[in-house]
Protein 1
Amino acid sequence: MHYRMFLLAALATLGGLANQSTPAQNSPGADTEFRALLADEWQNRMIIDPLYATQMGVRDYDDRLPQVTPADFQRRNHQYQDYARRLAAINRTALSVPNRVSYDVFDFEIHHRLALSAYETWRIPLTSDEGFHIEVMRMAVGVVMNTPKDYENYIARLHAIPAYFAQQQANMREGIKAGFTLPSAIMPGIIKVLDGQQYQSPDQTPFFEPFTRMPSTMDAARRTQLTGAGRAAIQSDVIPAYQRLRKFFTEEYLPAARQSVGASDLPQGRAYYEALVKFYTNLEVTPEQVHELGVKEVARIRAEMDAIMRQTGFQGDFPAFLQFLRTDPQFYARTPDELLKDASFIAKQIDGLLPGYFGKLPRMPYSVQPVPAELAPNYTGGRYSPAPIGGRTGGEFWVNTYDLPKRPLYSLTSLALHEAVPGHHLQISLGRELTDVPPFRLDFYSHAFGEGWGLYSEKLGEEMGLYKTPYDHFGRLSYEMWRACRLVVDTGMHALGWSRERALKYLADNTALSNQEVRTETDRYIANPGQALAYKMGELKLWELRAKAQHALGERFEVREFHDAVMANGSIPLPVLERQIDEYIAAAGGKSATH
């Protein structure tokens, strides 16, 4: 592959990862010291982020929300520095083999927490489609609530929302003072979401949902009392908090939001974006190198798209073909249920093929669900929502049913492969089934590994025979082109001075994405610099590692064994994955590339 030499030259162990020397004899003292460090950090993490604690099955802090004042972030930064010092003092080569992997993952995490904390990113606590105002709306989804105490804790959280929002708004005011804000160009989409969060009565809100599933074993009078208390908390605290938040955005934040779109225009912006590029790609690369690779990938994929277009018999040029795909009714569902049923059918087809490509499959099931209505207008086409640890619901493959004429069916197979199986559901669920690993590993997410695997899974669908028509194949290529374009437009806007309009045009000209998706995606890249780079960069590395294994093993290569080796340690940084695959090659009888 033409990108192989680039990636081999670019890939280097990140600054925070330990030097990989020949392992020494295991030292029980080193393992004990390392476990103590991880236990201290985990306990502190639960206290810092009670919402995360609940999602991870730690229920000791269910009555509170995070504290997010500048002083809180300063204390956390001091703690991260202490963890980094303690970690550096541990002899990695004296650890047991499983703990060496955990050491490398934890080192990556702490290194990048410290690197990014220098830019006080807490001053922008939301993106175009995510943020604190959305997180709290879903804080009870899938969470088991059986006792009066569970509901009392939840009600306490409802009462805490005004103070939590006030802290976040104060942080954004600090961003306004320093010129560290979101761009005004993406504000309309965010305000549209806030408009959808302006409820008139408690029963209309997602916050009331837990009170509709109170256990019948609970005393009826107690249920009535708790339901009344919950309704009162939503009416008196939650609804007004969202009203004040919208007022803040429209009257205070929007007028002060910056006019530029690039992260490089922020204070210390160039260094900030370079740090984000390294974090999201796991590679020591510059924005310019990523941009150049993206341009080459766009050209390669475009040639394949042209070939597929000719297979369909279409007589016009490429822009006319894109217009045909965006407007012909045959490519769009007529009702939300039709779209969800098509997605479910595709997902079930994939389920039946998985044993041919994986030796180990997760126990956790998943369902197909619409993107929540309050998020859908400014949301991407689909996403995976993991099951809460210890909860009583499975994972969810979300499909956006908002504005159906903008949700093409020819991309649905790629979407299911990426977000459900063998993409994020399989990957995340297997990672959560790891045993004998520290708790933080069960939910650690390397974006380059995770999103790279999702994109790898889309192409794996070709081997699985899932793309039935030329239009399906074109849909896959359009999705791959979309991720290649991200390398170009993300670096273009955040490092090379591109305008939002230029990015919009580049996506519209090169992909079959609807105009709605082009807008929401571009705004997503503007609001979350660097994250969009993870997909293609991670996917290229995965195919490179597969080619390495196939070359080294020849006829002994077995795709199920390779995939199991990739999944063996859950989500891990790419340098750690490469060592893992070298070990798999050596164990399978090939020659390892590790020197």
Note: Residues 28-267 form one domain.
Protein 2
Amino acid sequence: MANDNAHDPFNARATFASSGKTYTYYRLAALQEAGLGDVDQLPYSLRVLLESVLRNCDDFIYTQQHVKLLAATDPTGPKLEHEIPFMPGRVVLQDFTGVPTIVDLAALRSAVRRLGGDVSKVNPLVRADLVIDHSVQVDSYGKPSSMHTNTDLEFERNRERYEFLKWGQNAFDNFSVVPPETGIVHQVNLEHLAGVVLVKGDVVYPDSCYGTDSHTTMVNGLGVLGWGVGGIEAEAAMLGQPSYMLIPEVVGFELSGKLKEGTTATDLVLLVTQLLRKHGVVEKFVEFFGSGLDQLTLSDRATIANMAPEYGATCGFFPVDQKTLDYLALTGRSDAQIALVKDYCQANGFWRDDSKVSKYGAVLKLDLGDVQPALAGPSRPQDRILLADMKGSWGLDRVNTFKHPEPKATADVFYNDQTFTLKDGAVVIAAITSCTNTSNPAVLIGAGLLAKKARALGLDVKPWVKTSLAPGSRVVTDYLEKSGLQAELEALGFYTVGYGCTTCIGNSGPLADQMIEAITSGDLVAAAVLSGNRNFEGRISPQVKANYLASPPLVVAYAIAGTVDWDPYAEPIGTGADGKPVMLADIWPSNAEIEKVMHTSVTRAQFEDRYQDVFAGGARWKELPAPTGDVYDWQPESTYIQEPPYFIDLSPEPKPIMPVTGAYVLALLGSSITTDHISPAGNIAKDSPAAKYLVAHGVQKADWNSYGSRRGNDRVMTRGTFANIRIKNVLAPGKEGGYTTYFGPPEDLPTPVTQPYDSDVKPQPGEVVSIYDASVKYQSHRLPLVVIAGKDYGMGSSRDWAAKGTFLLGVSAVIAESYERIHRANLVGMGVLPLQFLPGQSAQSLGLTGRERYDIAVDDGLQPLQDISVNAVAADGTVTTFTTRARVDTPVEVQYLRNGGVLHTVLRRLVQK
């Protein structure tokens, strides 16, 4: 760790005054004055990295060479293969990924105690805040009691997890929990947790954060550099281990002009996502600049920053300016903090200055006036569809994607006291959800105004639509109620269902039995329209195949229309009370109307009131009992929280990296395999290995809950890895879901070698079984496994269980055409070797079938990005030899791999001290 700023080889330490106090900071200009580089031309996001290595420079972890490399970076030149360390100022967690993070910290304490170490050393060394926002599910909707019902069920289902988190809040220093019923982590981060600048002692430095959710990037809109990491990398940061990263390329995105009437920030971000995905920004920073920034509210900027994972970038950064200060004032930050942000940023080159345009590796441009209303779908956020083209696009997808040459319709369905005919394209879920949009008052007020206008004309939502409103913070409810628009939304069925991510993460809750029967028996392509950021197949609901992202006003509009088979410009949205057709244009609110309501309804006092005691929680949380003690008392019978097996019988010294010999293929997958496909997520399917485990432990189906809620139990999660209902494994021909063909030897052993995993399925060679059951059999014979995949392997949410489950299934290596950044790092962090086909090569081009056995020539001399030879030996003895690139990108990652993972590395260091 840095030595408390005692080392200052560049004479950069200086002071400045703010609100009558004197503070210390590390001047970036000192580097320019010393001739080390033109710091003024660096993108603002790179300046944050530069300040971090400058401030922490100790000639050990953070070296003078790191400072010089960053200061001298030419953003327009070729990408430099130089790594730098980075330690964020803080870490933010959500409960799905946060629970296993705290489980791992608790397991570290247990392991340290077993090895005779000091358990008090296991504490977050940087501030860590966890927001419980991923566990509420839309079981009840469309009623005044829905929020209460869903929250009761949330606490009932998640009591063990919540008791464990409450134990963690008391047991660990520097760790806080924002209880349920409060808001979504990214919106709470934006509205309250972020400081824009941080202070340690008297030293001021830029706020930065890692988050265990990919949409941590939302806070980039506030000028805070942050991005999503896996729980593994977050845990390392919490334990004082910096991340090592190559100096990133920064793509500049120039915005000009102004949004025209009728367009929203959602429309803008869908276009930005499409443009950046097309350009290619994976593993790059994106930084926004230009005169158009003055026309965007801070909430608009946050909407764009939020979806950096969807356009593929590490972050989408906006520099600090007056809009930042205005937002800090609106959201209740203190006058002293606001002054400190301004004074520090202006003193140290972090204040947006359009007279000094930064240099970028590439520049994209967009006139905001070119943005048009749009949606995205039916399964990828980058697949933008102009609203004007929506009906035609749906028709093409119905035929080409969903293979329905003619529209299908069911027999009459009786539901909610009404009889109707359900057809292809019926919108069965309409959800105002996700921090992407619920953080933006303009689009939420727009939805409320559209509802008000629709009601005034006598329109209503179709009876087959499951409606929900899940605000990202309590403040949203305050301003909707103050404006009178909450009642208008409720009258159309958009009652508040909870304060959490809900539909966007797959917690849409079950559809009614009558609806499921109609969709299933009629083989219908049902649709969902949601104001979220993710619409991957199988994510939103098992019965919904076509999922479209849209602004909150469009969510309400499609709930009224009841179908995506509708032309919003040429066809009526419905018939008014006077019997006349009503067009969408008749009920669409004007920008002036939205601005007027925002001005009178969104106030500073609302934020001050809601956040003054944010960690206390409501009555349910306060009454919740919590275990005590520095070391967690693991309960063997628990089906929610278990001590993971990572550190059981851990040797004090790591073993050398060894070649992989005779590995079988567990899965041969295509491109765009998301972490939703890999990691257990959503509902636990009947007859799945996870369901069998729960039943064997006395858990009734009604209490299975979701995979996300059981992330603290490796026994459940390992059984659910690669179990997504839509995953397609070439080794399970003709089947969808988590299946594979077992190719191993036929002998059975009395008990598997790897505990605590077992299975009552004893597959024979050539038999198609669940991936979990095949894994148990392979591991019982101590046989290594590999996974082979196409492009963008591991794209999507930063789910650490996508890597943990892979490791616990016995996978030694993954061979893919390319990786999403977070998942690649997580694989290394769990000791799994990521290999990449050379450009132009793939499993298909090499003729690999997945039925071969694989020898991987890796050894303890592994170097970062080394070429590794692989032999694929077919059953007839034919050998296909090819070269792969080891995506172990830095020397520290080699250490992690050698130790068996980042946590193993940390544990050994803790015990050795």
Note: Residues 214 and 706 are 20 Å apart (CA to CA).
Protein 3
Amino acid sequence: MEIGTVRPVKIEEQMREAYLEYAMSDMVRSLPDVRDGLKPVHRRILYTMHELGLRPDGAFRKCAGIVGETLGKYHPHGEAPVYEALVRMAQPFTMRYPLVDGQGNFGSIDDDPPAAMRYTEARMTAIATEMLADIEKETVDFVDNYDGRLKEPTVLPTRLPNLLVNGASGIAVAMATNIPPHNLREIVDALIYLIDTPSATVDELCNIVLGPDFPTAGIVLGRDAIKHVYATGHGRILMRARAHIEEQRGERRQIVITELPYQVNKAALIQRIAMLVRDRRIEGIADLRDESDRQGIRVVVEVKREADARKVLNQLYKHTPMQSAFHVNMLAMVDGQPRVLTLKMALQHFIDYRKEVVIRRTRFELRKARERAHILEGLRIALDNLDEVISIIRSSRTTETAQANLIKRFRFSEEQARAILALELRRLVALERRKIEEEYEQLVKEIKRLEEILSSEKLVLAVIKQELQELREKYGDDRRTRLVDQEEFTEEDLVDDQEVLVTISTRGYIKRLPEEVYRSSRRGMKSALGIGSREEAVERLLLSNTHDTLVLFSNRGRAFRLKTTEVPDGTRQPRGVPLNTLIGLEAEERIIGGVSVRSFEDAEAVLLATRRGEVKRVTLTEFATTRASGAAAIALEPGDELVWAALSDGGAEILLATREGQAIRFSEQELRASGRGSGGVRGIRLEEGDVVVSGDLVIAGGEIVAVTVLGAGRRTPESDFPAQGRGGGGVRALRITAKTGPLVALRAVPPGDATLVVLTQNGEAERVFLGSIKSGGRAVAPAPLIEVGKGDAVTDVAYLGGPAELSPTNGPSTSSHSRSGSEVGEEEASPVSRDTRRRSQGSGSARVGAKPAAGQTSKAPGKTST
């Protein structure tokens, strides 16, 4: 169209075309490319650093220089956005695998701005070099830069699946992208699996790529939401900060925040909490401080003494960015068009791109190998005819004449002839001639290998897999972000899964101790349990797990449900807390035992026994809805009380013992399951004045340990206690005398050695080893087990495991009270003691999963409490 010509157009069409051109231009600038996961500004910065030689083993360079080079050569825009993009690639709290190694102030998670670019320096990280590997081998297309002076790559030939491992975010016209970062190992494993199994489903890939892996770690809730995101390319992922509750002096607690959700500003979070406290939207916070340092994040929220730390933490999750959502929209440029990608599509696009890069690289290497082989073929001919070649060269007047004469005589190509003329005299020695031959032989093999790769897609994919595996080995690391199945977050997700010992004192204080504290303490059991006086004497011991739920039973026949994590940590709060602040105990009501439960859906039953010899069997699911306020577990007759509770798998044999030394053994099958509100049936017929004091589940092939109030004891094979029908008078388990005092506990222990702890009302706690206890039949009199002081009495016996902590000589001691505290502390637990304890734990008031007697069936053992 000539200048000055006026052509009428419709304004609607003109606006539409102009807007589409603008929109596409904006999308290219704002959305990442599916192949290398980069926007143009990031790509140009990395290419500029590559040209400047800023490799990870080289020197740093001022960021002002890098930004200037990028602006002058490839990105004619403002320096502020270019420096901002450079800074982002260097921030470890923004990028899962940073591409820039920064030196100086590059900002912080508190949203502190970076220093001016004239003060900071940078170079590429090692993993960034994988983004530019083989770029000089014609693996990607180059185009003119903005002024036509230089060439720049349209995409980087990356080996790193950067779009998924580092994620991306950006806003274009009418659309936006927000892709979360992932763990490199998981993405590589998924790529390899997809190469091997092209028909892989999203569910199969989700078994490998577990979910986002944020640089700031934290917790992601709900695997179903993650699967939805990967299947559709968009969705909402719920993130939470990682926090735990620490016990402090004076019965205080504090919430410690150690990890934040991705892209949450720590300083803004602290300010938000302070505002909520000021406005009284969150109650119970006494102090707030930031103790973060170079080692990591640590924000401390001190809770008032009267406040519930768990409730305060829940309020923080609800009202602050400690719980926030990451809205995923996996949008990227595919063949110049924006596309929403599923996980499989993103992985497949990267595989297709790597196939293209490998093929182009292989063609380049094949061409170079053939060119070099062609030169070497000429050199070999020249060396075989060296005298004639020298003669032709000497007889030629000019270089051009010599080149023409060589071509005419030996039919060399121009390249071969030029190489011969450039041959140095030192290459004529025998050793150098041999090197030429070896190089030629290696090139022939290399050419064959490269041709095979180009002729087989399977070999191309094998090359891709090998390079991915090398990437995984070199740069892969462990997952940082923890994934939780359930949407509703529980306190168990804030603590480690570990075995603990729960103690209840005579004054009603409860606490928990890590297993290693009481199993390997060098201070003796009394010190390990934190017993300092009669007022702090331990009345009940319960073995549990931090991820379990305790069902506690009181002497009044009521059941209380309590999370083990709700019990305070005794290493931080030695005294514990009053039990009645956690559960609804009434006046004069005390806990006689409990069971530790991981799942209430198991087909197990709770066995109960009362002081007057009544027994009852209740299905475990009956206690699934029990609250901390309590619910009836058994209906008691006036004057009766509950004395024993245990968890059974349905095939156990029950052993009940009375104060006067009688014992009865009968099958659990004689008890039919009944509801919580019903009473029991007769378990043992009692003589006048006698009462039931102890119960346990028989362990086949094990022994029965009897202990009296005055510290006398004896062990007897379980076969000496014959099975009878329920409701009988039983057999004489131990002859009671004034010297022994009444029976206080009858404990079933497994075959081999075992460790028991004898508790007294004055606060004594003595370890007793099975080998030190007198052995004999039921008629054999007991022998002194521990020394019981005047006015003191044994109150309970707890079984903690076995084969246990023997003396250094591996032989049994005569009695536990003869040991010093240091001797007890140096005892080493046998490798199988944990397994034995899990088969039968507790001090008798609750034994979970004890192995039934011979001839009875049992499923895998469960957990035990006392």
Note: Confidence is low (pLDDT under 50) at residues 803-866.
Protein 4
Amino acid sequence: MRGVKAPRSLRSGIPADAIERFDIGTTGKVSIAALAAVGAIGTAQAQQSTLPPVTVDAPVTRAKPPAAKPSAEARRVRAAVRRAARRQQQAAPATPTPTTDTTQAADRNPYADPGAPYKADRLASPKFSEPIANQPRSITVLTKELLEDKNATTLKEVARTTAGVTLGTGEGGNAFGDRFFIRGFDARNDIFIDGVRDPAVSIRENFFTEQVEILRGPASSFAGRGTTGGAINIVTKQATDRNFYNVESTLGTDNTKRVTVDVNQVISPTLAIRLDGMFQDAGVAGRDYIFDNRWGGLAAVKWTPSETFTLTANYIHVDLDQLPDFGVPYNRPALAPYTDTGVPRGTYYGFIYRDFQKTTQDIGTVNGEFRITDDLTFTNKTREQRSILNYIGTIPESPNNVALTYTANPQSRYQVTDVFANQSDFTYKFWTGPLKHTLVFGAEISREQTSIDSYTGLSSEAVGPGAFNGSGSFMNASIFNPPNLTPFPNFNPQLTGNATIVPVKTNSGYVIETANYHDVIILNGGIRLDDYNVSAYKALTPGTVVAADSDMVNWNAGLTVKPLPFASLYAAYATSSNPIGAEVDGTSANYGGLNPTATVNQIFAPQQSRAAEVGTKWELFERHLLVTGALFQTEVSNAREAIPTGLPNAGQIVAGAAYRVQGIDLGVTGKITQKWSIYGGLVLMRTEVTNSIVPTNIGLPLANIANQSFNVLTKYKVTDQWEIGGQATYRSEIYGGTLLVANQGTVLPSYWRFDAFTEYKIDQHWTAKLFVNNIFDKLYYDAFYQSASPFVFVAPGRSASLVVAAKF
């Protein structure tokens, strides 16, 4: 036993090699008295006492028996104990202090930068294996913290304050609900929830939302049909491995009363559940009579029975009860809405005793993830969904600018959309030399069916003869004094019963490959095949069937080069296909739907688009701020258009039109300093018709698009308790029009809108937040209704709200 060292108290004054030379020898015995004597060498006052020699056996090293290999159950228990220990350590209460870092809260967004919660680092879908900073495309992500600071409780409010996104209406037989344009292209059926298409044109709440992801540019190789301008993916909240209990209440000047609850509970080391609830009773600022009541809930579960298998599931129910507001008439001679020419901004043009809007959504999702090996993972997601859009509303059409009258025209719909979808993905990670590969290949099947019915019996007997026509339209109503208090004493609307049924069957397969060379050069590409079949028929009218079957192949390719670890340059190219009937809510082929009773030809090959984009992304300030910039161009061919009056075959629909959208897309999100957060974007576009059956259309811009839009939200932590913030939004003028080209005779003016908020942290659990939206009570408008006699949607006026939140 060489190299034995005595305790420090016995080594003072001993040469270092004295101990090294002291050897136990082969006897395996050592004399403690001898050790004491050696320890005294060199000490001036060594003790002169003699000690009896005491000897002990030196330790004998024995070989350890081979450890038994743990069973699968033992490994599972060991992993569960480790997870429980980590949770216990993470959940240990910190010393109470007003400066508690809320970015590390138990309910934080798992996809966001922990140090800069405005900045999302990754997308939720496994199809995007690289961080957002490495993706060769423009992506806008609104994290949970951003949604809270925008005070955005609906997807519509998100779109209203996001650069590059424009709101639309429900013209052409389409449903009135969420309708968005991304980079100039209709995206109302390009909404996804956790990566599964939600084709229902519904009204979407945000209480169950973790983040909103806006992919800009064609996304057919990732998402399937459509997605010409991009796609919106809503990421829902899931059960997590940490306990938290949150409640939030809101009181607003627009009569808003809102409560949300968000609770996560770990039941066992392998099981966690999450429950969310929302209740709202509200009005709409600046609009008479309108109410916006909602309630909903989410239940989510996460089960991890082993280290290799995880099962997550959630169920969402949302119920909305509203008085629909279909806008105000447009004064064509003045090139402005009537609320800009003397009509009070709050004037309501519907009938409060007839009109209603009820929307429900029930969405159930089960997702299983099985890690076959360390490099191969299989996931399977199944979705069952039903959405109901049910309304009777009044649109103020055909204004008489001399008599100052209009026609109060009813619009009604009872639309039920059912979705069944299943996605199966394999994710394989491997190396070839210095290249790290991530290969995602999978298949998707979806079955969608939309039933579209309408109401009859919309007239009122309480008004004199001639006021209502047979369809329930009120004729010659006063623009300045609309008859919205008209009684309907025997109101009993009935559905026609002869609904239009639109089934859609899609079978898809795809491969997506990413090759990363030392995080310096990253190649990305994908290809997808969609077998798309759509038909439409009347429920009670035999023989009225129109159908189309399309095989669509789309692909994308991108190259990202990172000359610096925090900076990248990229170039990308992608295609998309928009088949006929893809807008399943439509009852007019002019607007992308199928009409089973139409006499015109409706079957055409899919509309095709090709897009190119070059850009750069920079992660600055310790990588907590992402700054992006891109140049893009999208060209569309085989677009559909209607032959106008005055040309041969007027009213027929033809394919062969083409148009182009070019632009600049700038964005910033994250933290500039530890106290200063920012999120913003600027989009400048130029649109142009490049081919049309009408020669005079060529060169004209597209309708319903804001070619310049800007938004910035920023906040600053003044002290450990106080934060202040504000938001500015700009949108350029929008031209009206029908189907393809803008009508220079109808225009919505440009506008600026400003918001502000301040937040006070009472303690580590309680927070109070005051919002003032539309500070200067700006009168502005969301969207045009595309018709020869348009009307416009009025945006909300000024409102203030106090939000008190408790988090435990």
Note: The chain has three domains: 8-47, 103-235, 236-807.
